[in-house]
Amino acid sequence: MGRPREEAPVDAPAALDQYGCSSCHALHAGGVGPAFVWVAWRYRGQHGAQDTVASFITRGGVGPWGGVMPNLAVPPAQARELAQWILALPPEVPPDPRRFRLQ
Ligand code: HEC
């Protein structure tokens, strides 16, 4: 694992509060956005998933879940830390198909 050298460590749960991520995302069940364990499930085992998810966190927009996330102006270094944290969650729960269309 390890962090890129130039990045200061980020307290991911605090950042989720700071940016209001938690108002739309829950850990284990759906809010307005996909639960973070669903995101971990979707990208499990995929190379490059951290880049994909980090760049989505920096810009938001139309994503793969059939919704739109606002651009919250998260700095890229912090978005990478958040992506790493989200993808490290146990991918124990497949997404609820009633809530989100997976392509
Ligand atoms: C206003 C509500 C809202 C806020 C605030 C929000 N999100 Fe989202 N987020 C969404 C929605 C809706 C989606 C589904 C977009 C789609 O269709 O893929 C989403 C999708 C995601 C995804 C899935 C990306 C993928 O490729 O599967 C991640 C990861 C994510 N958000 C992280 C965050 C983080 C981290 C924050 C805080 C910096 C945040 N979100 C704040 C609504 C929100």
UniProtKB/TrEMBL annotation:
InterPro entries: Cyt_c-like_dom (IPR009056), Cyt_c-like_dom_sf (IPR036909), Cyt_c_ID (IPR002324). SUPFAM superfamilies: Cytochrome c. Keywords: Electron transport, Heme, Iron, Metal-binding, Transport. The lineage of its organism: Bacteria, Pseudomonadati, Pseudomonadota, Gammaproteobacteria, Lysobacterales. Coiled coil: none annotated. Transmembrane segments: none annotated. PROSITE patterns: CYTC (PS51007). Residues 7-90 form the Cytochrome c domain. This is Cytochrome c-551. The keyword Transport applies.
